[in-house]
Amino acid sequence: MIKEIAPGVTWLGFNISGVYLVGTPGEPWAVVDTSAPGHFEAIRSAAEEVFGVGAKPDAIILTHGHFDHYGSALQLATYWNVPIYAHRMELPYLTGKDQLPPLDPTVGGFFAFASRLLPVSGTDLGEYVHALPDDRSVPGMPVWRWIHTPGHTPGHVALFRENDRTLLAGDALATVNADDAVAMMTRRQQISRPITPAVSDWPATRRSLEALAALRPYVIGAGHGIPMTGDGVADELAAFAAEFRAPKHGRYVPEPARFDENGVSFLPLPAPDPLPKVAIGLAVAAAVVGVTAYYTTQNRKPEEKAER
């Protein structure tokens, strides 16, 4: 799905996470996030459709270092020969020096259950990746500024254009409830928590949401979910931020992970995860039932078997 959600802001709606093309033909432009691996051709083709054949961006901007946002970045940067930018606190995870904290499948909800199948985040974008400018300007995106919104990851950023209050929120929030399987399938729009198993600092997540709510955005394009636009968006975000609560349980709920510029400096112990034990118990029970049924059949008297 390709849709212009604000002047000069085009959303590419992929199944796992969205990509944004920001700018107008003949002017500086940038790609914001690159979804999961495998979307190089779709992003390149959409960029040519919007900006013209042969056009290339001034930069690729990553809101953070999870695989569903950096996935096609290196391939695109190599093809276009353009730099990639992210917050300096995110660089250890984009240069192969460290990995972001493990996902937390014990936090509850649909996506947390599915997160057991997702890869651990970490990549090396090599010489292409650089720190965002300290003055909060965004390369390739004049009049935009970046806002440090930690919680989901330590160097997460959102991007904001004040003249029309357009917010590209990354995974600081979602516009779909990923804790609910039905909501995910129907893609019903609503402001929701960031993808819960990937949040490693819940108090910071709340502070980031409050900072974004204070911007009173008219348009919100998140990493997950269909973008939201209209007069009611700011009020919905403000109400959500005011009522925000962390999950009741999970690895990072009692105590967050901690970070420095070299990577992860502290990880709380994993929370008990009953699912593997339950799965093993069900497998053992099924095996016992199967073996019992087999031997019961084999040990029947000949006349009992004949009756069957």
Polypeptide structure, described:
This protein has 308 residues and is α/β, with parallel strands linked by helices. The chain folds into 2 domains: 2-266, 4-Layer Sandwich (Metallo-beta-lactamase, Chain A), CATH 3.60.15; 274-307. The chain is 30% helix and 18% strand. It contains 10 helices and 14 strands. The chain has helices at 40-51, 67-70, 73-80, 91-94, 110-114, 181-186, 202-213, 233-243, 274-298, 302-307, and strands at residues 2-6, 9-12, 19-23, 29-32, 59-61, 84-86, 129-131, 144-148, 157-161, 166-170, 219-222, 228-229, 258-260, 263-266. A 7-stranded mixed beta sheet has the order 1-2-3-4-5-6-7, covered by helices on one side. A 5-stranded mixed beta sheet has the order 8-9-10-11-12, with no helix packed on it. Strands 13-14 form a two-stranded antiparallel sheet. A hairpin with an 8-residue loop joins β8 and β9 (157-161). The radius of gyration is 23 Å and the shape is globular. The N and C termini lie far apart (59 Å).
Number of strands: 14
- Residue stretches low in confidence (pLDDT < 50, at least 5 long) are 277-308
Strand order of the largest sheet: 1-2-3-4-5-6-7
Give the full name of the CATH homologous superfamily of the largest domain: Ribonuclease Z/Hydroxyacylglutathione hydrolase-like
Tally of discrete structural domains: 2
How much of the sequence lies in strands comes to: 15-25%
